[in-house]
Design a protein that fits this description.
The chain has about 280 residues and is of the alpha+beta class. It folds into two domains: about 170 residues, Protein Transport Mog1p, Chain A, CATH 3.40.1000; about 45 residues. The protein is built from nine helices and eight strands. Helix 2 packs across helix 6. Keywords: Signal. This is Secreted protein.
């Protein structure tokens, strides 16, 4: 609730034309030197510390530890309903509802092993890899989704999905949401254009503090995602992901070898005719 109030206050204050230009103008730049010059080389360091939620969540937690934190969060969320419910049938029904929410979170776990998953067809594609001991758990409640990403059973990324539109605490559109964040963080973010080769399919704006990298991810006209990433893990991702994604458009090695055999020999560098065999 505190975060929602901060976002609402930022919307009321606004940043003015200069901030809007700094956070969105770079996205309109063409790729190449001009675009690179328009973007900071690194994520801007914010003036405030990024707080993870719910309370008790920390980078490096195991799936079991995260589930235990979610249990406590759900217990607290159900307290008002328990106070308003008399012992008996309704109380037992409430017990069952709470137990089901806790169980649903545990059942939401997806392991990115050998077989493709349905997550590949969602905007989360590019946030994980296969065969690198990665997994994801999702908490869905009160109209919001929060995805917890693990690598080697250690929490390293959280992605929250939010709606946009008139009256939304996040803003009416992506640009206004980014402006709000710049006000809250105390500095305009770095605009990063899409780059499918890097697993990035939409525009992002990012910031960081001493421990966490934050990305505001465009999700179309009516949605936005906030990604929180552990900087320590982020700096080691290349070594943590030894199995690289296979390029579906790459030529099969057997075919490539056959093509090379059929190619005529290259002319000698001296320009002299090749010796006959």
């Amino acid at each position: 609730m505190k975060a929602k109030r901060l976002l609402g206050a930022a919307l009321a204050v606004g940043l003015g034309l200069a901030a809007i230009t700094s956070t969105t103008g770079a996205a309109a730049q063409p790729k190449g030197k001009s675009a690179a010059a328009a973007r900071p080389a690194e994520s801007p360091a914010m003036k405030k510390k990024i707080a993870l939620s719910p309370k008790g969540i920390a980078w490096g937690m195991s799936t079991k530890q995260v589930a235990a934190v979610i249990d406590k969060m759900l217990d607290a969320a159900y307290v008002p309903r328990y106070k308003a419910t008399s012992p008996g049938v309704r109380m037992r029904a409430l017990d069952a509802e709470l137990a089901e929410e806790k169980s649903a979170f545990r059942r939401s776990r997806i392991d990115f092993g050998k077989l493709p998953t349905g997550v590949d067809a969602t905007p989360l594609k590019g946030e994980y890899t296969y065969l690198n001991k990665e997994s994801m758990m999702t908490l869905s409640r009160e109209g919001m989704k929060r995805h917890f990403f693990f690598i080697q059973d250690r929490l390293w990324k959280i992605i929250d999905e939010h709606t946009l539109g008139e009256g939304s605490p996040r803003g009416k559109d992506y640009q206004s949401a980014v402006v709000q964040l710049a006000k809250i963080f105390g500095v305009p973010g770095r605009v990063i254009p899409p780059d499918p080769d890097q697993g990035r399919y939409v525009t992002e704006v990012d910031w960081k503090d001493a421990a966490t990298h934050f990305r505001a991810i465009e999700r179309g006209e009516t949605a936005i995602a906030f990604a929180y990433e552990d900087l320590v893990t982020l700096s080691s991702l290349d070594s943590l992901r030894p199995n690289k994604p296979v390029d579906a458009n790459a030529i099969d090695p057997v075919v490539a070898s056959a093509v090379r055999k059929d190619e005529p020999p290259a002319p000698p560098p001296s320009g002299k005719p090749a010796k006959k065999k």
